[in-house]
Design a protein that fits this description.
By secondary structure, this protein is mainly α. Helix content is 69%, strand content 2%. The protein has 30 helices and two strands.
Length: 638
């Protein structure tokens, strides 16, 4: 066997394997030292074992490359494996640099060294990426089946029932609801009436809070009224999640993805906690996932009547997405252009659909605001990242700025904010600017952009670091800052998810919470408030927003690799919405949650055969002839 191996073309790859092994080991050991990993502080023998493992995996990888006869295919596999590994490695290196030192390596030399180190680390992890893309090749060349499953209500109700039953104890533990995050502001507006509403928070969500307040007032208990709101959210989310799981069964033609996804939604603690949280992100999450499922359903529709029904359902769902989150409009606009230039199927229909959603969402929001006479939200929200970058310059270079730079920076951001700079959240600098400076420059945005660009050219590393730290939880898998931002602890009601009661205010006495299952409450507090999940081997990844973001990127890259544009466009909306999060004021699990819940469905969509659309539409259909007898007919692909 060895003779056959070394007589083959693999001999020419041996020098490549040696070079890759040396560089891969060097990069891996650098990353280990940077992360201060305890296992790498062990004796040298352990590093030797790691080096042998890296060399072995790379040997198998290079051997696999040597067997690919098509040069273009081999180069494509190597390129995609390396590029994905490189950016994942870069995220770890920058993440550990920021965690350990507070800054990334300075200057051109520092960045060059970082990129070279990332290349070394990428070589160390490239074997895993190669296996993944080999799987993509195998999937692409596999013969398609013509036994695509049709939807079945029994699968929906099984998933729905399991999820809801698993959530009910959590509802009793947190009864009547989790009233944290922005509930303190919205509850004041809801309690005082429409005239107090402000468009800073989605008006539809504040209106829902008011309607359930009124229900509680009518039945004599605000607590019971808000409990009904919790039940509504649980029913909406569990039904959409069940619909998603059923779609996974139909796409993959296998039962195990259905059961795994159902268990994921039912058991992982953050799902019921989010379902009980009185935040706009809860219902927004349901509508985002429903939108993705309906897009798939629209592609599956066999009849014109069904397509028309789904088209209307998509427009209505899209409008709900728009009115529950202000930044959704940017995702829809970008998605429209992306679909226009990238899609190969149903291009005109989807473009018109997105335009209808954008117009419908805008008209709905403006109509609601006019009808409620609600105040405008503060537009300073959109400047979170540039303000944070300018503030970091002031914080790091105070005393070294020229008089002109000092005066210009102080014009946009009060000096007091520089000294209170928090790299992980932009709310402080936004609040300071809103109080002291924003009114003086908000009508001259071009001048602000010019100043921002000038400071960026003068302090590029500060700008890069400000952005990276602010968004760290979305791209660095080992990040914990997003779950420790305001504190954490079993009794803190902070941590990964906030569970404190913020219903009381100077205008409203608040709503009392009462746990009917304190034992379950205690366990959930350990996980979502005390962040105990970080000590769970492997499973801790399921609580990391960045882990799901990288899975989303992997889905997109994989579809590019297999050149499946039709699938890629349907994964684009969650990805584009993710990009809008990078411009936000802080990393928060609830912001990423709408994307997180789409990942199981998108992975199932990834593993559906490329010609699935044509196969599905060529399945035998049951009908009746003129005599009323059943017969089978083939409906050809459209």
């Amino acid at each position: 066997m060895l003779k056959k191996l070394f007589d083959s073309s693999f001999v020419y790859y041996i020098p490549v394997w040696i070079v890759l092994s040396v560089l891969g080991c060097a990069g891996t050991f650098y990353l280990a030292d940077l992360s201060n990993a305890a296992v790498f502080r062990s004796p040298v023998a352990f590093k030797v074992i790691v080096a042998i493992l890296i060399a072995t995996f790379l040997f198998i990888t290079v051997l696999d490359w040597s067997k690919i006869k098509d040069t273009k295919k081999r180069i494509r596999r190597i390129t995609y494996s390396f590029i994905f590994s490189f950016f994942l490695a870069l995220s770890y290196i920058w993440g550990y640099q920021l965690t350990s030192n507070g800054i990334t390596d300075l200057g051109v030399k520092g960045k060059l060294f970082t990129f070279l180190a990332s290349g070394g680390v990428a070589l160390g992890m490239m074997s895993v990426a190669n296996l993944w893309f080999a799987l993509m090749d195998k999937m692409k060349s596999a013969k398609a089946k013509n036994t695509a499953q049709k939807g079945n209500l029994k699968w929906f109700f099984m998933s729905f029932g399991i999820i809801l039953v698993c959530w009910i104890p959590v509802f009793l533990a947190y009864y009547p609801a989790i009233m944290s995050y922005d509930f303190h502001k919205q509850s004041q507006e809801a309690y005082q009436g429409w005239i107090w509403f402000n468009a800073h928070h989605p008006l539809i969500h504040t209106a829902l809070i008011r309607w359930f307040f009124l229900l509680g007032e009518a039945i004599g208990s605000y607590q019971l009224g808000i409990a009904f709101f919790s039940i509504l959210q649980m029913l909406v989310l569990s039904s959409v999640y069940a619909y998603s799981c059923t779609m996974m069964f139909r796409l993959t033609e296998k039962k195990w993805p259905f059961w795994v996804a159902t268990a994921w939604f039912a058991i992982l603690p953050f799902h019921p906690v989010m379902a009980l949280s009185m935040t706009k992100d809860t219902l927004f999450t349901a509508f985002v996932l429903l939108l993705v499922v309906l897009f798939l359903e629209y592609r599956m529709a066999e009849t014109k009547k069904k397509r028309i029904f789904l088209y209307i359902a998509l427009i209505l769902t899209g409008i709900l997405v728009m009115i529950f989150r202000n930044n959704a409009v940017y995702a829809f606009v970008v998605f429209t252009f992306f679909y226009a230039f990238w899609s190969q199927k149903q291009r005109l229909q989807i473009i018109l659909l997105c335009i209808a959603i954008i117009i419908g969402g805008h008209v709905t929001k403006t109509t609601m605001q006019a009808a409620m006479q609600a105040g405008d939200g503060n537009s300073i929200e959109m400047y979170s990242v540039p303000l944070q970058q300018l503030c970091r310059v002031g914080a790091n270079h105070y005393g070294f700025l020229t008089n002109d730079q000092y005066a210009l920076l102080n014009y946009y951001i009060n000096e007091e904010a520089w000294h209170k700079y928090n790299p992980y959240i932009a709310d402080g600098v936004k609040a300071s600017a809103a109080v002291y400076t924003y009114e003086t420059w908000k009508n001259d945005i071009p001048a602000f952009i010019k100043t921002w660009a000038e400071f960026g050219l003068a302090f590029p590393n500060d700008y890069l670091d400000a952005f990276l730290v602010l968004t760290q939880g979305y791209w660095f898998i080992d990040d914990m800052s997003h779950a420790e931002l305001l504190g954490y602890g079993d009794d803190s009601n902070l941590g990964l998810l906030y569970t404190f009661n913020a219903s009381a205010s100077h205008v409203f006495e608040g709503i009392e919470t009462h746990s009917y299952l304190p034992g379950i409450l205690e366990q959930y507090q350990k996980i979502v408030n005390g962040n105990s999940y970080k000590d769970w081997p492997v499973l801790y990844l399921l609580f990391k927003p960045a882990f799901y973001m990288w899975l989303l990127v992997l889905c997109m890259v994989s579809l590019l690799y297999v050149k499946d544009r039709n699938k890629l466009v349907l994964c684009a909306f969650p990805f584009i919405y993710f990009l809008t999060l990078l411009l936000g004021p802080v990393v928060n699990f609830r912001y990423a949650y709408p994307i997180i819940v789409t990942i199981p469905l998108l992975i199932s969509w990834l593993f559906t055969h490329k010609n699935w659309y044509n196969i599905y539409h060529s399945l035998p259909k049951q009908g009746k002839n003129k005599n009323g007898k059943k017969h089978t007919k083939n409906q050809s692909a459209k």
